[in-house]
Amino acid sequence: MPYHRSGDASAQADKLSGIVEESDLYEGFAPHVETSEIKTLDFYNQPKPSGKEPALRSYTEIQQLLQQGKKRDVKNILRENSWPINSPIRAQLWPMLCGQHLTKQQMLDGFYWEMVHQVFGTTELSEKPIMLPAFVDATHCLPYHLTSTGRAVADRIVNVLGYDCPDITYSPVLYPITSILLHFMSEEEAYMCLAGLVGSKEKVFINQTKLQHEVTWKTVMQIAKKHTKSAISYFQRICPGLKLERVFMDWCWWILAGLPFQHLVRIMDCYFHEGIKVLYRVALVVLNLFHKECQSNNEWSPDNIKNDIGNALIKFCKKIPVSPAKLLHAAFSIRGLSTQYISRIFIKTEMLLKSRSVLNSGSKQLIKSRSSDNLPTSQSQVNIQMMSHTLTIREKLHSESCRNLGEKSPGHRAIAMGVYPIHNLKSQVCKNEDLFTLWSWLPVRITMYQPVLLYTTEEHGCSLTTFYVRVEQHEPTLLMIKTCNNEVFGAYCSSRWFERNVKDDKGQRQAYFGTGETFLFSLYPERAKYPWVGIEGDKDLGHSSELFMAADSKMITIGGGEGQAIWMDENIRFGKTDGCKTFNNPPLCPSGDFEIRVLEVYGFVGI
Asked: In this structure, what are the phi and psi dihedrals at residue 479, rounded to the nearest 5 degrees?
């Protein structure tokens, strides 16, 4: 069995540093590393800067800051402290950084070795090669400086992770990250680190599906078009027929397969805390540096690179002319690359790809074009009529409940005929028959668009900040809540949640926003729709009957006037529901107070 450390942190560091026989040069590496291949010399023999350098921060200092919740301070320390590649600090630092993202606390005591025994029938390391999971990219199983034993350990970790996380279907970077971790820690610790990265709810570290992988490289491409315009223009000028997609599909390999190991290790110091956005920034610097070298170094002349810019980028990274410290300094000096900005690009790209996937699925394709007033074109209406015979078994079962509701709208007929595939939705909140009922209540023009899941507490965590990042720019949105008592209710919100920030003529934020198209609904235990009271044309409505939506950093509210129809806290965990004047509704759950099990928010593609 590969070595396993136990005891307190300092004892672990002492044990790790004591495994080396030759010298202290490689004290920071684990036993399954071929240390003779690792270069720890000064970068390109550049002279050390003069003057007294500030002391490097210790593991204990960083640990205390993390325990105090001072993540920003930790971020700055990780960016600024260039620990040597052989520093023992990573044996403790990396597990701590990855551990803060860990959600499966039950894994902490012997979980990994139990899983190993389940998968392989023994905890002894097999001498025979292990077949790797299908999600691994066989062409990029990068071992770096691992020995043959180290590689076998990496194979086993990836297999166990695949067994424990069956939702991982495509993750080419997972194996290289595993290999990097194993340079500084035991097998069990490396697995725990990966479990934290894969299971993180707040930040993205490792893509786990082909869709996520594609969205990521296309996001990098979109960001590069804005932040490295000169480089992109240069590549397109020397290669008129160049498709940027072919270059950016391999963006992660510029870093993971191209950069020297000492650069990679310093990048990981920051990546394990901040997430994939660190790699985005490094990729942009690589592009800018490559462009600069192309103009001054004959090795990278247009004739030498125009036939394969992607491969030339990786070769350039192997000889990158800046130190790890300068690379990171340049990466973190890029302005206008906030987490919110990256998230907006990512979500927009994700929605586009999902909508294309939906439109391309199924045996019959519909006309996508819409008239300027958001109603279907005449050709689309003809398609609806021609497909009236395509009721599925599920929709037939639902037809009785539709008749009971007396719903005759064109929108509902389109749903029943399977023209707009809401049956493809996999809601964790309500059943399929409830979805059909809910769709029958939507405005007719909205039923013509493909719904896309924007936010769910199951995948994106319980944070109002994350909710706003993923949802606030979309209009309209559909909120569905399932409580811990299994009540299901929600609201159709007609306006963007971003309007909470809009100011009036006096420079003050408006308390409430939205329109009379907003409505409430309940699906369980009772089915009911609660539209705006003003929809009936009552002329005596006061201000209290027009309180549709309100939000700030601490809560969101839907419906007001002598009560709040739906109120949720900043952690999206607890809420309450009252009757209100805006919708003339009863409380949407019997107790009034509720605990949220799942919240899902949907947007609509193409609006």
From this structure: -100, 130
Compute the CA torsion angle 129, 130, 134, 140 (nearest 10 deg). Answer: -50
Strand partners, 33: 146
CA–CA separation, 66 and 62 (whole Å): 6
Q: Are 375 and 404 in contact (CB under 8 A)?
A: no
Mean pLDDT of the chain: 80
Report the DSSP beta bridge partners of residue 30: none
**Which tokens sit at 172?**
């080419």
Tokens 């996937």, residue? Answer: 357
Assign residue 139 a region (left: φ > 0; alpha: ψ between -120 and 50; beta: otherwise).
alpha
Average pLDDT over residues 541-549: 78
Strand partners, 593: 576
Would you tell me how many other CB atoms lie within 10 Å of the CB of residue 552? 13
pLDDT at 388 over 60: no
Tokens of 274: 């901040």
Q: 83 Cβ partners below 8 Å, 6+ apart?
A: 56, 89, 90, 266, 269
DSSP assignments along 224-290, one per residue = HHHH-HHHHHHHHHH-TT--HHHHHTTHHHIIIIIS-HHHHHHHHHHHHHH-THHHHHHHHHHHHHH
Q: Phi then psi for 435, rounded to 5 degrees?
A: -60, -40
Q: 3-state DSSP call for residue 594?
A: strand
What pLDDT was estimated at residue 305? 82
CA dihedral sign, ordered 284, 287, 292, 297? positive
Give the H or E element holding residue 345. helix 339-360
- Identity of residue 302: P
Q: Three-class SS of residue 294? A: helix
Tokens of 93: 């630092």
Distance CA 368, CA 196 (A): 41
Radius of gyration over every alpha carbon of the chain, rounded to an integer in angstroms = 28
Average pLDDT over residues 387-401: 34
Tokens of residue 405, six digits: 């509701």
Q: Phi and psi dihedrals of 33, rounded to 5?
A: -120, 135
> Confidence band (pLDDT; 50, 70, 90) for 504?
low
Three-state DSSP class for residue 400? helix
**Residues 108, 114, 119, CA angle at the centre, nearest 5°?**
130
Residues 66, 70, 71, 75, CA torsion sign? negative
Reduced to 3 states (helix: H, G, I; strand: E, B; else coil), residue 328 is: helix
Residues 458, 439: Cα–Cα separation, whole Å: 23
Write down the pLDDT at residue 37. 77
Q: Is residue 146 a contact partner of residue 34, using CB atoms and an 8 Å limit?
A: yes
- Burial tier of 113 (Cβ tally within 10 Å: 0-12, 13-18, 19+): middle
Q: State how far the Cα of 315 lies from the Cα of 307, in Å rounded to an integer.
A: 14
pTM over 0.70: no
Per-residue pLDDT of 115-149, as tens digits, reads 999 889 999 998 888 889 999 998 999 999 999 99
Question: What is the DSSP secondary structure assignment for residue 26, as one 8-state letter?
Answer: G
Helix, strand or coil for residue 115? helix
